[in-house]
Design a protein that fits this description.
Neuraminidase, mainly beta
Length: about 300
Amino acid sequence: MAGMRVLDVDEQGRLLVAVTDGDQVRLVELAKGRRAELTAATGLTAAKYLPGERLVVIQHGDPAQLSLLRVGKRITPLMGSTGHATELLGVLPGRIVYRTNRRHRLLYSIVIRNVLFGEEVAVYDRGGAVIEAAVSPNSRYIAIRLPRKLVLVDTMPVTEDDHVRLISPEPAERGRRNLRWLPDSARLIATEYDEDSTRIVRYDVASESWHPVAVSLPTNSTGWVAPDGRRIAIASGTTLMFHQTDNGRFLRSAELPAPIAEDAFLWSPDSRSVAVSTVTGEIAVVQADSAALTQIPS
């Protein structure tokens, strides 16, 4: 199974894997040594399990559209149009978070939609080229990266002025990226890139301030905080390091068969392991407590 790319991992450790086959991409589920072919679609670029369910949301096509797959059943259209993009940003229990440019191709809105009932709320509709968005675990806050700034959307503001507020101005290149919330929904983790250094930083919503977590990292590093907030996995080249979140202390590291591909890193929901895809099309699972590495055979 050459050219594999891991897309998601669920509570039982099952992996969603994309396998490219010409213009078609096959979606495969790997679980305890077993392999199940789920579906195939043209231009399939993302797929996520809905937490706690055997439902998968799939992004495919150009412009992107979303479909829903109940594992073992046929894929069905969920939403989207040939006239604008509908792109998956994340999943919550029973809901999806997506961005769409249905008003104008350069102006995006962010929407949270109940998958089962179709109800949805536009949580950000002020336009701009939304590059990245992260929804807090309690769904109250959405951190959004635009080309030159980070903003915070408060879905339960005291006043309308508090609905969208500036976190920080950002340079067009480098700056703070790879946004992830801690479980308390009050602190945000990001990877911060300067001219010649990289570090992991934390933003506190209450104090509206940034604080260092892990500093003096190699310039090509990227960090991902675990769902339970205890550890951060930091990748640099073929090295995957684990650090404590509270004080940045180095814990252990593993050597990967090749560097991690872009947007191809996933913590398991229980925070015990990570699954990565490499630039050479391999998949590896690394245990956070021991750094033991297991390669997924093709």
